[in-house]
């Protein structure tokens, strides 16, 4: 029986891998990473060091496209309601590899969702059936993300730098089309160059489709409006913040949300 961790480069999947290895032995565990090719450079440092420390087999998959290339191919700009990047760059390569290599009775799958997000476990269980999916960080002892990071650093491995810089996840280099206004406001403050890059890519998609599309939405008086990254940046630059929802961080969950 193989125990396969969806190894995302996040602290949750590291902590889950550690628990699974303690229970089943590193020789029975596979760490499966799917690369979107726009990851933060420090994610690779974290994966290298943590894989060495865990000692289990490591598999890296890639589709070969970035999220922006996917949006062009499917002629649709991803957003919080439909993010085909996650399906085509993460779930599909992982599904293919899984089906090519294991039958449902030959492996168990694991995700790093923790006890604070246990409402997110239903979708992957349903989606991967008949493969069995488990969530070691939803089990006792319940530990916080800070405790997971402390445990990691006690072993001499520095946490992924995006956490230190205030991001809630370590995916797609701090970008995510499922993220919200607050997340993008943080990206602009932390890394204006990278924000500008994604702003330009969003504009390219608008020109390419010839449509008023945007990653973000704004709701006012019950009505929803498109909110481009350009518009959000311009409002932030002149400190016109009354309509910006800084609490809208959004949830990134490539192996948790199924479009
Ligand atoms: S992290 Fe966000 S942008 Fe990146 S692949 Fe997943 S849904 Fe798409």
Assigned CATH class of one domain = Alpha Beta
Bound molecule kinds, no repeats: iron/sulfur cluster
The major β-sheet equals: 5 strands, parallel
How much is the radius of gyration in Å?
A: 19 Å
What is the fold-level CATH name, i.e. the topology of one domain?
Rossmann fold
Low-confidence stretches: none
Structural class by SSE content: alpha/beta
| Overall pLDDT confidence | 95
CATH architecture of one domain: 3-Layer(aba) Sandwich
- Percent of residues in helices: 40-55%
What is the string of SSEs from the N terminus onward? EHEHEHHEHEHHHHEEH
Under CATH, the homologous superfamily of one domain reads HUPs
Extended strand count: 7
Total count of helical runs of at least 4 residues: 10
Strand sequence of the main sheet, in spatial order? 3-2-1-4-5
- From the spread of the alpha carbons, the general shape counts as globular
């Amino acid at each position: 029986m193989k125990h396969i961790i969806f190894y995302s480069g996040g602290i949750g999947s590291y902590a889950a891998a550690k628990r699974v290895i303690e229970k089943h032995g590193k020789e029975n565990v596979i760490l499966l990473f799917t690369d979107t090719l726009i990851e933060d450079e420090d994610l690779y440092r974290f994966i290298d060091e943590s894989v060495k420390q865990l000692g289990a087999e490591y598999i890296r998959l890639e589709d070969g496209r970035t999220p922006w290339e996917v949006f062009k191919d499917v002629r649709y700009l991803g957003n919080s309601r439909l993010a085909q990047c996650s399906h085509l760059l993460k779930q599909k390569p992982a599904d293919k590899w899984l089906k090519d290599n294991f039958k449902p009775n030959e492996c168990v799958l694991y995700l790093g969702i923790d006890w604070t997000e246990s409402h997110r476990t239903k979708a992957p269980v349903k989606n991967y059936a008949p493969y069995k999916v488990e969530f070691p960080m939803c089990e006792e002892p319940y530990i916080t993300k800070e405790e997971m990071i402390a445990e990691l650093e006690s072993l001499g491995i520095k946490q992924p730098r995006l956490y230190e810089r205030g991001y809630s996840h370590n995916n797609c280099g701090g970008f995510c089309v499922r993220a919200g206004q607050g997340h993008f406001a943080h990206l602009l403050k932390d890394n204006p160059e990278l924000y500008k890059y994604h702003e330009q890519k969003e504009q390219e998609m608008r020109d390419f489709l010839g449509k008023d599309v945007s990653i973000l939405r704004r709701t006012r008086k019950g009505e929803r409006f498109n909110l481009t990254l350009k518009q959000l940046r311009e409002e932030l630059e002149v400190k016109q913040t009354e309509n910006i929802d800084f609490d809208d961080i959004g949830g990134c969950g490539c192996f948790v949300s199924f479009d």
